[in-house]
Write a sequence for this structure.
């Protein structure tokens, strides 16, 4: 089971790298792929935190790396002119408050990096990590994600 989780997250990260390079003309695709990596990573952490999956340090590390890597590149995927199209959920506030948007993305990446420096060692630690990451995710989504 551990190997499967690690392979899935690794595959998603590989696809992210490929899709980011491939979708240079379409930042909407790149940012949607990055959010899928973050979503999959949070799902993996959530399953461990809830006890639906056994604790797996390698899977936890891979998930945190997925969040960190994605969020470091994420703010660069919002150039002018990409406010619409490809079923984007990006709110206009992203382009109105660029510095704040970047700061929130950087905060999530930094939180993931902090957790990577001392990977949670058990289910309870993963639960605490989820709380920290989730609060930062939710804060950004409230302001910068359209409700559909």
């Amino acid at each position: 089971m551990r190997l499967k989780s690690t392979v899935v997250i690794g595959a998603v990260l590989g696809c992210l790298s490929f899709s980011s390079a491939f979708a240079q003309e379409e930042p909407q695709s790149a940012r949607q792929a990055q959010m899928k990596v973050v979503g999959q990573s949070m799902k993996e952490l959530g399953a461990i935190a809830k006890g639906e999956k056994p604790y797996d340090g390698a899977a936890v590390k891979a998930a945190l790396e997925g969040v960190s890597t994605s969020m470091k590149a994420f703010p660069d995927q919002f150039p002018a002119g990409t406010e619409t199209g490809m079923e984007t959920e990006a709110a206009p506030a992203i382009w109105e408050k660029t510095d704040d948007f970047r700061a929130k993305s950087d905060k999530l990446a930094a939180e993931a990096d902090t957790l990577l420096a001392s990977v949670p060692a058990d289910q309870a630690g993963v639960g605490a990590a989820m709380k920290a990451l989730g609060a930062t995710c939710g804060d950004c989504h409230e302001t910068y994600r359209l409700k559909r």
